Amino acid sequence: MARELKTYRIAQIFEKVNSLDERKRCLLCGKVVCNVRNHYYVHFPGKYACSLCTAVYTRSDTLLMHCRSKHPELNV
To answer: Does the pLDDT value for residue 19 go beyond 80?
Structure first.
């Protein structure tokens, strides 16, 4: 069964574990995390993919830095 890929706002997929704790539970996988933004990208990776390897980034400038450091033969 293929799960429909839908982008959620961060607030929609996390719930507080309890009122005394800053950690939140991911409603998609059940994992309890401290950094919701980092975990969000586990489920919804970035849209900037390297054409030479499997690296994917959420920002175009990070992809550019990757290409310059990992693929210097490109002369980007």
So the answer is: yes
Quick check: 62 and 49 in contact, CB under 8 A?
Answer: no
Residues 6+ apart with CB under 8 A from 28: 13, 43
Beta-strand runs (E) in 1-68? 14-16, 24-26, 32-33, 48-49, 56-57
7's tokens: 């982008």
Give the Cα separation of 19 and 6 in Å (integer).
29
- CA–CA separation, 28 and 64 (whole Å): 31
Q: Determine if the pTM surpasses 0.85.
A: no
Asked whether 48 and 56 are in contact (CB, 8 A), the reply is yes
Mean pLDDT of 39-68: 90
